[in-house]
Design brief:
- Helix 8 (246-266) packs antiparallel against helix 9.
- It is elongated and about 90 Å long.
- It has three domains: 3-71 and 119-145; 73-113, no CATH class; 153-290, Up-down Bundle (Butyryl-CoA Dehydrogenase, subunit A, domain 3), CATH 1.20.140.
- The relative contact order is 0.12.
- The strands form two sheets. The protein has a four-stranded mixed beta sheet, covered by helices on one side. A two-stranded antiparallel ribbon has the order 5-6.
- Helix content is 62%, strand content 14%.
- It has nine helices and six strands; from the N terminus they run βββαββααβαααααα.
- It starts with a strand and ends with a helix.
- The protein has helices at 42-52, 77-94, 101-105, 121-175, 178-193, 202-215, 219-240, 246-266, 270-290; strands at residues 3-10, 14-23, 28-33, 56-66, 73-75, 111-113.
- It has 294 residues and is of the alpha+beta class.
Length: 294
């Protein structure tokens, strides 16, 4: 979800530049900075961003420079008078020293550039359309930059899904040996306990082994992990088709981790436990990469 884009435009009075930066984020957060007098563009800009993106922290900046040279300056006397009244009120209350004239003039908006001719409503509408066109251009370029990163990221995620699948296959092979391992372990432990007691009946012995095997059965977890792997590959296909899948992938990683935790807790074999720990590590690496998916 990272990317950078820049678009510029101009008319007979001014030049402008839109810059867009995007970094990773679980949700969509938009920050927009525009020059004084162009605040009317903030809401349309935010709407345009939310129409294109679903996740990430997006920063938009509009910079405008005048093409006219030697524009006369004027003092916004209404604002200056309001400031002077507020300063006097604060000075009487706190006893603070009065501000200097240059201090008041440095307040934003007190000194303004004076256009030789005020723009008509039609000219302002044309300006807004031109600025909007440049905004659409920069957002399109940002989407392309993010898509380029996404294509590279898809390969990384696919390799991690392959790793998870390989570990699940190893876990399935190892889990198949748990019945024999449990039977041998139970038989050995029981022999020690019954050295001075009558032998346990074959039927009772089989019941105890069956109980232990049932508690250690991880086939359901492995089946669900296989289903999650298939779903992950489906989401990868959707992502390559430019569909937003980040939130779905986030949830899927939680389910991956849930099954891996259960597998480890049920394991009655050291090697299976080691595989489960490796599986949890691979799932965590997958989850970290999924945070970057739109």
């Amino acid at each position: 979800m990272t990317g950078y884009a820049r678009a510029q435009g101009s008319d007979d009075r001014r030049r402008w530049v839109w810059e867009a930066r995007s970094v990773n984020g679980r949700n969509l957060e938009v920050r927009c900075r525009v020059p004084q007098g162009f605040e009317r563009l903030e809401n349309p800009a935010r709407t345009a961003v939310s129409g294109r993106f679903k996740r990430g922290n997006v920063n938009l900046t509009l910079t405008i420079a005048s093409e006219q040279q030697g524009k006369p300056l004027r003092i916004n006397r209404a604002l200056l008078a309001e400031l002077a009244a507020l300063v006097e009120e604060v000075r009487k209350t706190t006893g603070a020293a009065p501000p200097s004239a240059d201090g008041l003039l440095r307040v934003r908006g007190v000194i303004e550039e004076q256009d030789e001719r005020a723009e008509t409503e039609a000219e302002l509408s044309a300006l807004d359309r031109a600025l909007q066109a440049s905004l659409d251009e920069v957002l399109g370029a940002l989407a392309s930059a993010r898509a380029g990163e996404g294509r590279a990221l898809a390969g990384v995620i696919e390799r991690l899904v392959d790793e998870v699948e390989a570990l699940c296959s190893r876990a399935a092979e190892r889990a198949a040996t748990q019945v024999g391992t449990l039977r041998d372990r139970f038989s050995s432990q029981l022999a020690e306990l019954l050295e001075r007691a009558p032998a346990l009946s074959e039927e009772r012995f089989a019941q105890e082994v069956a109980l232990l095997v049932g508690k250690a059965d991880v086939r359901e977890e492995l089946d669900r992990l296989a289903a999650h792997i298939a779903q992950a590959r489906t989401l990868l296909g959707e992502a390559r088709a430019d569909h937003p899948v980040g939130r779905k992938f986030d949830f899927l990683c939680q389910e991956f981790n849930r099954e891996a935790n259960t597998l480890c807790s049920k394991s009655a074999d050291i090697e299976l436990t080691r595989i489960g720990i490796d599986l949890k590590g691979a799932i965590e690496r997958l989850r970290e990469q999924v945070q970057n998916v739109e």
